[in-house]
Amino acid sequence: MTAAAVRFVAPSGDVRIGRLDGSTITDAGPAGPGGFVPDPGGWERIAAASGAAYQADAVRQLPPVSPSKVICIGLNYRDHAKESELAIPEVPIIFTKWPTCLIGTGEAIVLPPEETRPDYEAEMAIVFSERFTRASGAEARAKVGAYCAFHDVSGRRFQLETPLRQFDLGKSIDTFGPIGPLVPAAGVDLGALDVSCTVSGEVLQHSNTRNLIFGVEALIEYVSTLVTIEAGDVLITGTPGGVGDGRDPKRYLVPGDVVEVAVSGAPVLTNPVVSA
Which of 51, 137, 179, 191 is exposed most, by the fewest CB atoms within 10 A? Predict the structure, then answer.
């Protein structure tokens, strides 16, 4: 597997950038306010990492980036639209997760008592390398500096049961945005990656990004036509069918669960589930 970029807390308490090789993190220097930015200079820094080495499970891993926004796509797999009993969208469905919900791999997903329907959603996320607007086609693809596994934890009660369906609130509960280590997107076919979710040893979602309704370039073009994208911003591309809310019986997250989100070529994103 390709070496990945991480942001972590060193034993000294300093926040650092590092290269993840298997289970070893090699220090690549101090983290800036934006975390790791996946531009060419950022990846050169990761390749040249030569500092102290740590076991990955011995340090706290933070979200690798600190984005200005997390752009989310709803109903972007046909099987998920079907299980949600909704029509196939004619244009991308856009919502957001507030960046304060982001956590790193290994950190706990904390279930608040007010959210009675916490659900899992495995996704492939992309991270942008530079600031831009109105990009399309090959230009849009060239703005993608990294990709990773992402868990769009979803509070269905607040998302669906509250007045006017407070979608963003249900999606942005603290710790409801686990994001994994970043791997380079250059040369990778982002339309041919397996995506899966395993909850406490049971595979509950499995698909491939070839089944996306709207591919990466189309999503970037649609969003960037109206919104300026900043370096380090995150776009999550949608979840396949198999979510807990679409099952009979329902299968929601409970304390004691361990969730693993896997995307081809990227480190597995693993997070335990606990109660508040």
Answer: 137
